[in-house]
Structures are given as C-alpha cells and as structure tokens.
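Can't paste images in this forum, so I'm doing it all in text. The chain is below; anyone willing to post the predicted structure tokens underneath?
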Amino acid sequence: MKQRVPFFVVSVVIVLAMLLGACAPAAATEAPVVSEVTEAAATEAAATEAAAVEPVTIKVMSFFAYDNPEVETAVVAAFEAANPDVKVDFESVPMSDIFLKYKTLIAGDVAPDVMAFNYDNSYVFASMGALAPLDEFISKTNYDTSKIYSATLNMFKVDGVQYSMPATFSDVVLFYNKDMFDAAGLEYPQKDWTQVELQAAAKTLTVDKDGDGKIDQFGYTFPWWPVVLEMYGASIWSEDGKTCTMNSPEGVKAIQSIVDARYVGMYSPTADQLAEQGDWDMFIAGKLAMFPTGPWAIQPFNDKISGFTYDVAHMPAGDKQATHVYANSYGMAAASKNKDAAWKFIEFATGPEGTKIRQDGKYEISPVKEIAEKYYLANLAGDDPANAIAFMEVQEYAVPQPVHAAWNQIFDAIQPELDLALTKAISVQEALDNACVGVNAALNQ
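Text version of the structure:
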C-alpha cells in the first residue's frame, strides 16, 4: 500500500516552489510541475483515506425468525448502522434446509463468515472442525460473558472451547390450568414441588366426569424422556462417551415413573389415549391439568384458549430438579477470511442490542439476562402466563439435551424399545437393555 504524504511535506514543496519561481526568469518557471506534484500528492492522500474506510463485507446466513424475516433483517440493519466499516450480505434460509446447505458450501470452500445454529448442529459442525474457536475474540474484546445465562453459554462449548454464542433460548417449564386447580381447591404448583406433590395433585385432577368409566380429564403428561432421565440422575451414555448407561437403576426408575403414571396411578394418558388426542390439544381443550412445554406454546395457547386461565411454574423434581434448555446461536466459519468483522457481528447480534430486537419481535427469549428479564416479561404484560419469570428462573438447573455425532443412530436404537416399554409390551429393564445394544454400536462405530 502506498504511504500517505504528510501535510507538512506538501507545504514545504509549495513554499520552495514559490521561492524558486520568484528567483528564476519568467520563461523558466516550472509552476506546472509543482502543480502536478501537489495534485498527485493530494490525489494519493485522498485514495489512501478512501482505502482506509472501505467497508469489509461478510456473508451471514441464518434461519432465525424465518417466518418473520423483518426481525433478523432489523438486527442486520442496526449492526450496519453501528458499524459502517462492515457490510453484511445476509441470507435467510429455512431451518429444514440450512444445515445441508452449510455442508455443501463448506465443501466448496465458500462457507458464510457467520452461520446460525441450533444446539445439536452447533456441536456437530464444531466437532468436524468447521467452526472457529471464539475464546480468543472473547478475550481480546473483553466480552463480558457473565451477562449471559450460563446454561445457554455453556451448551455451545465443545471440550471447554466456545464455538458459538447463544442468540435465543427456550426451555421446558410446567404449564397448568389455573381454573382446574381452583375448582379442586388445590394449591398451585410451587417451586419446591417434587414428584410427591405433583402426583397427589395429578390424581385429584384426573376425573371421569360422566361416570362412564372413561377418563375425561387427566392430571399430567410427561416431558420428553431425556428430561425425565435427567430428573432421576440417569444418562444415555457414560461420561467418557463410550458405554450406554441408560439401563442403569436410575434409568429404569426414570422410565418406570412414566409407565406407573399411565397404568398404576392412571393420572397420565397412555399411548393409545394420546393417539386419539395429543397432550398439546388436550391442554388447549381443557382436558389436561398440567403439561410440560416451552415458551413456543404461549402464542398458540393465547390465540386458541378462551375458556380458562393458565400459568407456568417450575418443573417438579424427581430425585433432583431438572429441565432442558434449547438455544440457537451464531458461530464463525473456520475458513472465514474476515474473522474480526465476523466477530463484530456475532458480538452485536448475540448481545443486548441484537437480542432486544428479537425480543421485541417476540422471537424466543434473549440469553442476555437484563434483556430477557426486562423486555420478555414486558412484552407479555396483560397476557397469560402471569408467572413468565419462571422461564428465566429455571436456568438455575436447566441442562441442554444430550448430543452426539451419532445422535440419529442412537435415537433410532432407543425409541422403538421405549415404545414397547411404555405400552407394557416388555419390561422397562428389558427395553433399556435392548436399547443399549444399539447405543453401544453407535458409540463405538
């Protein structure tokens, strides 16, 4: 790059030229040469200045708020306004297509500088070396990670290394029908509830209203089975990731609790009953008192529920209190040639400014504590649920879902066996022993 000519040098040239011009005969004056020199210097200085402010362009690809594209494009526009030295070539892609597209672009060495991920795919792409570690950028920009819910931050680490930054999150809490509790004279679910209190309430709230021997109103349905495993301290595989441990006493106890709720306590619908009407629709219809789900249910519930009031509470504990947190993030391509600019975007888009825009657009919950606790709740003011702060409070014990490079194979080994156990076709122990055969094969492939 050419060096900029200092202003004082140009000044000296001009002065000398004037003195020489005064001493020399008029015919010999070289003023045009001096003019050319000063003009060239000024042109070179202007070109150097322009080059210094030429913006860097980065490619960003995201599935966030795909059905409401104005939300993420607003984040991009706000970033560009705050960072005129960086231009963003933004592309919105549906989640169903984006990860295959990444793989194609990475293989062609044309990956976007910044890519959006959900939790499990962030793990997969980081494990395959497609993402750049972010710890160096966090350190050199003094990024304050304490402002982020630790559960969401930690889920995007692989072997202790931060590979992407959370941009939104959601988690599972206990939704409940307040009118049913009021009619039964029951206390609403409390933060310190265990399965003991849950089961007692669920049994009371399970009712055959017309006496025909068929239950018309159920007390409770269970969350996704990995959440139940976590509630009883069970895991699918060992800490070193080499052996299936789902058939442990803790694992059997966890799955048996679902079977017993269906066939012994009879306060939770069976697979056959759920086939007639799913728990989501049961809750909307006022036929289910307690339903574990996440903030994605709020808008549909508020649109469809008119006959009762609902609220949310903490997840009742099994042998320990637990729930799952789910999150989306932005990561940086390992092959990016504009890493500093890419980090600028990630820092903005996952920080207070970017996540407030999504929060105002009602796209999930900000992982930045101050934004979530102030604006998420404010946006829900006047609507159910009244106790929406529970979504933030459960972060104290929320953990991410299990992830593994062979997760699809692992899941396919487990689910058919669980289906047999949950319909009492085989025992829970037998089902989990059978599942572990397939899980071990996947872990050791």
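The two ends are 53 Å apart (CA to CA). The chain has three domains: 7-47, 56-171+326-379, 173-321+405-443.
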